[in-house]
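#struct-pred
JK: can someone run the complex with manganese (II) ion? inputs below
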Amino acid sequence: MSKAAIDLNGIFKALEQNEQAAIDRLIEWLRIPSISTDSKYRPQCRDAARWAVDRLAEAGIEAELVETGTPEKPGHPIVWAEYAGADDYAGPHVLFYGHYDVQPPEPLELWESPPFEPVIKDADGPIEDDVPQRRVVARGAVDDKGQVASFLEALRAWKDQHGQVPVRFTILLEGEEESGSVHLDQFVRANRAKLEQCDICVISDTGQLGRGKPAITTGVRGMAYTNIVLHGPDQDLHSGMWGGKCPNPINELTKVLAQLWDADRKVAIPGFYDDVRPISDEEKQAWSRVPQDAAASLKKIGLPPEADVGERGYSALEREWARPTCDINGIWGGYQGEGAKTVIPSYAGAKVSFRLVADQDPEAITKKFFAWLEERTPPGCRWELTDLHGGHPGNVSADSPYVQSAMKALEVAGGTKPHLIKSGGSIPVVGLLKAELGLDTLLIGFGLDDDRVHSPNEKFEIDCFTLGMRTHAALIGEFASR
Ligand code: BES
Ligand code: MN
Ligand code: MN
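RT: done, structure tokens with the ligand placed:
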């Protein structure tokens, strides 16, 4: 399509007129509790996938559900569509990836409204930056249904205004992102021939630099996630009779885990940093100019400025964007009920995860961690170590021509030049597509850092939703005019 034939303003106007309908559609999707990690919600995951298939059909795009896993160990279906675009289309074949699954909503008592009964409300705190901050509150609002919906709405608007979407694309909506994308490797390998036809992947599952500060994300971290259990006596024991006479697995586990960080808050596992790409001088300089305020961010989560702690020698931004970390995400053992119980438990466990950066390898890190634990096995005890999942870090060069297209689309849609940022979060498919197919990804996200991702009262602000719709509509125009 020639630039002249593209009426972006017409499409923007249509999006504006249809805003309420778009919000209503999103609310419908958010009502479906597609919690992928909990097998009780298998039918709901399928319903959420079907919902997307139906909305795509309305935009003239034929999509299907592709099963994953095996009959014995079934996975959640992938929403898959291939669309040819206009006859004269000469731009890149785009792979659009998103996920329809959501995190479990617990703890339920902290939600101000039920997680799967979406509500529209105004800002709940003081108005910042003079914008209304109207939002939809529900599990999955920003991660990732609201962001995927912004893409679906852009397709719909193009179809309504031009009779078709001009761009050639493939859609892959996953239902297992929040539970480790366990069947995605297999799917990508099985569909290699089709996926190899794609030139660039586009994902909206990240955030902006801040309100009114749209951004393109050029890097996400990788992940290695483990479950570790330390077994001691073969039964729970009276701590009066046995305390001080045999290992207490909780005491022993916490002593080992406490050695994970040294005095500089560096991860103490030998070789952990071997493959870490140092932050370049250019990056250091560019990042020091990024408008960010560590103390203000901490304040938003109820912490004072002195809570700005992490690996010594790096700023908060550097630590999030380009340094690996280790976190205990859960820990258990012994008595947790009301009142006191004098017990030495038979075992204690923890969920330990690592955020990784280029060029660390998740499998190699897990191996090093497990070897490190074995060397520290407390006397008489035994480890039960499980590798839950991993994902490679993903990085895109900011000089890529696709990043330039995305910058233009964001600027047209949002009226301001986007920032180039990285994110500390992980999106396993990014590293997977790069490793398997050499495919780069454009991460164009519309979230805000106070969206309470994975937490109670998750929200997506309507202005962010609108920016998402407009940006995807503009990006389609950008690719079509090549
Ligand atoms: N959308 C997030 C990742 C994200 C969050 C990127 C915030 C940038 C900013 C994604 O759904 C997610 O939660 N990923 C998991 C991956 C894990 C399960 C392998 C994560 O980062 O913990
Ligand atoms: Mn997500
Ligand atoms: Mn998530």
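RT: quick notes.
Residues 99, 143-144, 177, 205 surround manganese (II) ion (ligand 2) (CB under 6 Å).
The two ends are 8 Å apart (CA to CA).
JK: thanks, will look after standup
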